[in-house]
Amino acid sequence: MIRLFVWMQEGEGWKTILALTYAIVCIMDFVIMPLLLNYDRQEVLSMAYAIARDTTLDKSIALEMLKDVYRTHTPYTLQGVGSTFHLAFGALLTGSAIGKFKEKL
Predict the structure, then answer these.
(1) What integer is the mean pLDDT of 19-40?
(2) pTM value?
(3) How many domains does the chain have?
């Protein structure tokens, strides 16, 4: 554990951890979560067909029920002021890459 902290302080460890953290967050938010939310799509479609076929419901109520059934994943890192999350990570990664490039010159 101490070797990890030394590696993080002395070398380029924090940049590696930063890049891995950003990659994991983006993969979870843009790939894995949409797949998990759409995994049981057949059940959702059967519910939507049942709502659409039900003639006793008022059309506005049926529309609201269909809106609840058909939900899509909006990435958590883009909700609200979430785009600042990507801007901040982009600035840190770009700054570290430019610093590494200047060291090589």
Answers:
(1) 86
(2) 0.65
(3) 1
Q: How many CA atoms lie within 13 A of 87 on its CB side?
A: 5
Please answer whether residues 93 and 19 qualify as being in contact, where contact means their C-beta atoms are separated by less than 8 angstroms.
yes
Q: Which domain holds residue 79?
A: 2-104
Per-residue three-class SS string for 14-44: HHHHHHHHHHHHHHHHHHHHHHHHCCCHHHH
Contacts within 8 Å (CB) and 24+ apart, 37-45: 37/71, 37/72, 37/73, 38/73, 44/69, 44/70
Of all residues in the chain, what percent are helix, strand and coil, respectively (each to 5)?
Answer: 80, 0, 20
